[in-house]
Amino acid sequence: MDSSEPHGNGAESDLPPPPPIIPPDIVPERVEPEFPPQPVKKKVSRVPIARRGLGSKGQKIPVITNHFKVNVTNLDGQFFHYSVALFYEDGRPVDGKGIGRKVIDKVQGTYSSELAGKDFAYDGEKSLFTVGALPRNKLEFTVVLEDVTSSRNNGNSSPDGHGSPNDSDRKRLRRPYQSKTFKVEISFAAKIPMQAIANALRGQESENSQEALRVLDIVLRQHASKQGCLLVRQSFFHNDPRNFTDVGGGVLGCRGFHSSFRTSQGGLSLNIDVSTTMIIQPGPLLDFLMANQRVQDPYSIDWAKAKRTVKNLRIKASPTNMEYKITGLSEKPCREQLFSLKQKSRKDADGEAETIEVTVYDYFVNHRHIQLRFSGDFPCINVGKPKRPTYIPLELCELVSLQRYTKALTNLQRASLVEKSRQKPQERMRVLSDALKLNKYDAEPMLHSCGVSISPQFTQVEGRVLPAPRLKVGNGEDFFPRNGRWNFNNKKLVEPSKIERWAVVNFSARCDVRGLVRDLIKCGNMKGIRIDQPFEVIEESHQYRRAPPVVRVEKMFEEIQSKLPGAPQFLLCLLPERKNSDLYGPWKKKNLAEYGIVTQCIAPMKVNDQYLTNVLLKINAKLGGLNSVLAIEHSPSIPLVSKVPTIILGMDVSHGSPGQSDIPSIAAVVSSRQWPLISRYRASVRTQSPKVEMIDNLFKKVSDTVDEGIMRELLLDFYVSSGKRKPEQIIIFRDGVSESQFNQVLNIELDQIIEACKFLDEKWSPKFVVIVAQKNHHTKFFQSGSPDNVPPGTIIDNKVCHPRNNDFYLCAHAGMIGTTRPTHYHVLMDEVGFSADDLQELVHSLSYVYQRSTTAISVVAPVCYAHLAASQMGQFMKFEDASETSSSQGGLTSSGPVAVPQLPRLQEKVCNSMFFC
């Protein structure tokens, strides 16, 4: 409302009365507040702790790693950082990414003397670096580029109608290229001393040292870009069909290399590894569409789906070989789609060229004399602007190579990719050595001017093999795993459960159900699990086989209720398809969230003793049993953990696949229970805003007395299940965060956890240990002189580890196929005061308490459980068809942020169970 308008009804009486008049002789008294204000405490920001010492336990073993030593001689030099602004001739800023490198190359070629002959490290966007300064702090240049459109990395320049039916042919033949003029402004931004790299190697990291390493990484990217590679962060992919492998659905796995500079205790190193990305199958667009939709002929293509798939892909159109970006499809088939064609030879009354309406088909066949075999019946490809479409017949379009495919892979594609991209250690080492030679980094002028030289030898490090922990099984028996594995042949489970009131539910799976039940009962008895005969085998009625999954589950529950005398303790569910059955999510949700029934799904293909044992391990854990425990947890003698009530947490956030920006992320936290055990866990799972990595529901105060956060639920359960003891130590394993987010884990997530503790009891101050587990890195280890992977239990905490921070690599599992990927553990905080050996042994032991398998696993069990809990509860919220149609607006609509749908709460009977096993 405008301030000059009268308020409300124009009545002035709404104003408060004037203040009373104070006599002049009154001296105002100062009123002291009842509660004097607390001095504002300046919050100290936590940072990762420094290494306190190296471990010494275990048998020493020489190991080699894919880090190559780097020498930098020009440490007195300085990088100069310049910001780059690009404009078109008319002053509009250039927004596309692809064109920058071409423009800067042209500037460098044309104006070498004005630039004092300097070499550039250019990131392709707004930052450019040189060794030493350019002649002036602000430089402006104008360059002309020919043939703007056909750049490999270029996705932004539009065809401007050339080569389209809207234009006459003669014009295109006369001007085969589009030339464009660009203005370039290069202005000084900052100086970065190379000495910062040496400081980082001494453990003194700073913004400068991170920037200096970023410059070296940009040089690697630029080097790869000049060779025509596709760049994905620090991974580079050459356009070489020998590196492509078909995974089905019109998608190829493309093998390339990751390379980046790392600071380590042994100095600066170049980390080179094999990397794979997914690309669209290059070649005829029609072939891709048929493969993508898995159809045999073009007439079966679903064009609405095709339109979404091809948008923004780049094609080359024959016969001109011009490159375009697809903006859509024509409304009508090629034979019927009309457009206006200017007739130069015929003028109208005003002397303007006459326009006639022709079909795209007629234009290409009769005007351009290009034979079209089959495009007539299908939509045309539109490469024009929304207001000015430019149509090209389907068969003249070829997809350009090296275009990334960013949608989620199907389970079949993923399995095919894993199968085809695994490499034995020796083969991987050979490929990496070849990659270093192939890249010819010695010839890169920028690295030369920094005085950087790279050793061709793999770095040698000293590893240690930790002994496997002793395990306890049934009847008080002990045994030692061998090579990270064990089995339950002729052994009983340490705490077997009883399966009494149960039934089998069969969703049209073809198998001998009676035989399966008989073998399951027999196998269970041998492992110590007493299994009664099931109440009933309930077969799905034929009429519902084709119904939607939710309906099938509803109908099955109606059957269960009519046939069983009461709620069962357990349901065994037979599914018709392995892996990605649509019934899985609705079935789990119904059982766990609505009825509180423990359930195990199986898709019985090859049923043998080993298969049934593995199924029983899962069932036993879900029903509250334990399969095996650590001997040190049984006798309780775990250093620092068995003496004082200690809770162990595993935290993970899972996000929708890359193409799905509006799917909530799912945060899961699992916690140990029944201290001094460290083998039993329960989970708390919540949704949060899409793509947010920090968990935001750890503490959720809804009133002065109510906290609905994750931590309260877990801490109360620990208290009740551990004989009314509060945990005095909280050990947190956090998965899936990068080094740039370590400070957020320490200052945002940990703060919430502390608040949740204080909310329960103001005086309670537990001690914290915070450890990040990373699998997503590129360090690999190999045994010298052996074709095998490093043995399980191999730990490395020197040479290739961080110069200051407390980190180590552990390969706890036996790598049976491919090359073992170690887990990189970063100890960010340790208030308990573990020795290096005790902490490393605790982490190693936690790889042996995973109840689902009889092997050591590659990352601690609580992290694995958090991952399982997040993905299982994520199935509850099957967002139908989201992968196809999701908008990529990051979950925002015009009206603001979308409310994140909440997950249903699990029933009390199962919420403390290991339902995720």
Textual characterization of the structure:
This protein is an alpha+beta fold and 917 residues long. It has a 16-stranded mixed sheet that branches. The protein has a five-stranded antiparallel sheet with strand order 3-4-2-6-5. Strand 13 (314-317) and strand 14 form a beta hairpin. The chain is globular and about 95 Å long. It starts with 58 loop residues before the first strand and ends in a 6-residue tail after the last helix.
Topology record:
Elements: E1 59-72, E2 78-88, H1 100-110, E3 121-122, E4 127-131, E5 138-145, H2 169-174, E6 180-193, H3 195-201, H4 207-226, E7 230-232, E8 235-237, E9 244-248, E10 251-264, E11 267-280, E12 283-284, H5 285-293, H6 303-310, E13 314-317, E14 322-325, E15 328-333, E16 338-347, E17 353-359, H7 360-367, E18 379-382, E19 391-392, E20 397-399, H8 411-421, H9 425-439, H10 445-449, E21 452-465, E22 471-472, E23 478-479, E24 498-499, E25 502-506, H11 513-527, E26 530-531, E27 537-539, H12 549-563, E28 570-574, H13 584-595, E29 598-602, H14 609-622, E30 629-630, H15 631-634, E31 646-654, E32 665-672, E33 681-688, H16 710-721, E34 729-735, H17 742-760, E35 767-774, E36 781-783, E37 794-796, E38 806-811, E39 823-830, H18 836-845, H19 861-876, H20 882-885, E40 892-893, E41 896-897, H21 908-911
Parallel strand pairs: 24-26, 25-27, 25-28, 28-29, 31-34, 34-35
Antiparallel strand pairs: 1-11, 1-21, 1-36, 2-4, 2-6, 3-4, 5-6, 7-8, 8-10, 9-10, 10-11, 12-20, 13-14, 13-20, 15-18, 16-17, 18-19, 21-37, 22-23, 22-30, 31-32, 32-33, 35-39, 37-38, 38-39, 40-41
Helix pairs in contact: 3-4, 11-14, 13-19
